[in-house]
Amino acid sequence: MTTGGLLTLGATDVSPAIVSLLTILVGAALASLLAHRIRVHPIPAYLLVGILLGPRLLGLAGGADSESIETIESLALVLLMFGIGLHLDIGAFRGSLIVLAGAGMAAVLLCVGALWPLAMLFGLGAAPALIIAMALSLSSTAVVMRLLAERRLLRRLSSRLALGVLIVQDLAVVGMLAIVPTLAGGEGPDDSVAWPVMLGRGFIALAGVGGLAIAAKHLLPLLFGQAARARSGELMLVLSAAAALGAGAITSALGFSPELGAFLAGFVLSTTPYKYEIMGQVTTIRDLFMAVFFTAVGLLVDPGVLADSWWAIVLAFVTLIVVKCVMIALGAWAAGIGFSVAVSVGLMLAQAGEFSLVVLAAVPEGGALTEETRSAVILVVVLSLVVTPPLLDLASRIEPKIRSRVKPPWIHAPKLGETHGTGDDPVRHVLIAGFGPVGRAVAERLANRGVTYTVVELNPKTVLRQAKLGRRVVYGDATNHEVLESAHVRDAVAVVLTMPDDDTMLRACRAVRAMNPDAFIAARASYLSKAFVARSLGASEVIVEEVATAETMDRLIAKHLDNIEPAKADPEAELETGAGA
Questions:
Q1: Residues 34-69: b if buried by 16+ CB within 10 A, e if exposed
Q2: Going by DSSP bridges, is the β-strand pair 520-525/452-457 parallel, antiparallel, or unpaired?
Q3: Residue 579 domain-assigned (yes or no)
Q4: For residues 200 and 181, what is the distance between their CA atoms, to the nearest angstrom?
Q5: Residues 118-152 pLDDT 10s
Q6: The CATH number of the domain where 47 resides is what?
Q7: What is the β-pairing status of strands 429-433 and 452-457?
Q8: Residue 315 · residue 125 · CB < 8 Å
Q9: Taking the complete model, does pTM exceed 0.70, yes or no?
Q10: Which residue of 7, 75, 436, 470 is surrounded by the most CB atoms within 10 Å?
């Protein structure tokens, strides 16, 4: 029975929010398991499970506890925007930043410009059509990058260009979230307040955001540097959550969205050597809230819309794929990227994305979008995510067959993407986990052979010192998948695990083998028993310290004995021997 909004079980009252959250988590877990079995990304599975659990079908979640679910959604959004800022790596594209920024901005503007009037053809007003056009102009960073990583295509030229466009789209989310409430008919400015006063408030708010960015730039690296010296993953996680929520609270108090503050905090930390370790610490919690968020979004969908307007949803889905493919390819080509690569990028990014749903979620309740329109757009997003894998396969097949190198007339100098090919020339790249005496010795020998290598090290002083010497070094734990990804473990021909801790070595061995099935893994173990475990986890060869010590001591003793002169014979013994003979 229920009493005062509580579910009564015997003498215990259980909040319906807890029941719904438990239902969402169980449903999301089942959806993720099913998605893994059929090899699709879990985001569309989360949405479909949310629709199934929603009040319009099974009625197991949502309803009276929607306020609690919205709070969880808001927290998930803050962590998502923190993750966007943290994953930005502008330095990786420094040599082609202008081209990539131009391609990304052109793609976003062309997609919004093309989708806006098309959305109005479906009977929408100018403001809701613009909101939908902005939302659908965004592609899925999570789905595309995961598929490219699984197919080991991240080093291809078209993949790197797609990542550049995705970064620009992720940056555009910040601006979209700032203007969507106004377009959606949210709370506008008070007419009784004079314009000079409003401008003054706006200037103060912008100055506050600037001050926040400057303070974060100087304060956060110091705090995370202390956490790195303490080598406490728990402290790193707590500081990350505090930085995201604290910055979000400050920007919210200044009149901006909390997502903007979280993004700024993440972006500041992306410029520090601690970013990869932070990413690994935050990823698990972020994925948890992402599962809750997308399942909760599915709760809002009215499946009756699909029955009533299935033809319009299918038409909108096909239109979205075609328009985005053409517009993104056109934007990339206009920036000077080769035609074949531009077409491949257009196919990769033709879907809508997770941040399309974030933009839709920013529309206030009762604003410009009706529940029916929101449900229809979410269903279009789901369909576009489902067809992303075959679109990537199509891009891989047709790119080598397109030989056209036609450039726009305003491009005269060779630009990124003009040459045809995959852009993944084979190189001998080795990853060294741990830079103690053993790691330094291995690095020195690799350098003498002309082999490139990347070091993964958890000592912040060592990281800073080696970075100043020009070595490629990544701060973080070699058991952390985000750290290994940033160190390009998938491209390594060999991985050397030199850390002295056996348990860490075993976890790193398992992680490396899962991410790169073909790499040669050489590991260091203290005991023979640990070596057997390491071999079972995928190590190619294991150097056992106790065995190596025994062999070295045996050689030393043998060498010493060989250098000792033979003892002089005893004359009496010789006489006795001769007499006996």
A1: ebeeeebbbbbbbbbbbbbbbebeeebbbeebbeeb
A2: unpaired
A3: no
A4: 21
A5: 989 888 888 888 889 999 999 987 778 777 776 77
A6: 1.20.1530.20
A7: parallel
A8: no
A9: no
A10: 75
